[in-house]
């Protein structure tokens, strides 16, 4: 399993010319960084009933926007550090059970999602067919958000669970940031 903050499909674009829907669908499950981020977004959303789906949908939309930027060859600075930082921040939001207005929460996760998306889009740039992998990645992202949301709803009355889960995600982010330093 990939542990660095990368899209982790690979960097040999020619080798990915034939990737498809299933590759995109499975991709978010193959890297701990993306898996943790998607679950944390859902879990955090469950901590405030006002925004159950606003934040996950914002993340998915901005993930797609970022992927399209990456596919277009638009580079953003510090993509890997921002992916790692997203884990730190999302983990802290879960651990501290932070509540904020829905639009602010959506904007916050949206910024991080753009960086996650750019990493994926850059890696997919050499693929012959990007629609299939992008659709698969979006569906898997939403499924992971839903899983995190379900876990968060089931466990939201047990504060220590969210504190431990969030602390784990935050520490993972710190570890990735330290590896990048």
Describe the fold and architecture:
This protein is mostly helical and 181 residues long. The chain has one domain (15-180). The chain is 70% helix and 0% strand. The protein has helices at residues 21-26, 32-46, 54-71, 79-95, 102-124, 131-155, 159-180. Helix 2 (32-46) crosses helix 6 (131-155) and helix 4 (79-95) runs antiparallel to helix 7 (159-180). It is globular and about 45 Å long. The two termini are 21 Å apart. The chain crosses the membrane at residues 25-45, 52-72, 78-96, 103-122, 134-153. Keywords: Membrane, Transmembrane, Transmembrane helix. This is HupE/UreJ family protein. It comes from Polaromonas hydrogenivorans. Pfam families: HupE_UreJ.
Map the helices and strands.
Blueprint: H1 21-26, H2 32-46, H3 54-71, H4 79-95, H5 102-124, H6 131-155, H7 159-180
Radius of gyration: 15 Å
The biggest beta sheet reads: none
Assign an overall shape.
globular
Write down the domain tally: 1
Average pLDDT across residues? 89
InterPro entries: HupE_UreJ
Pfam families: HupE_UreJ
Protein name: HupE/UreJ family protein
Keywords: Membrane, Transmembrane, Transmembrane helix
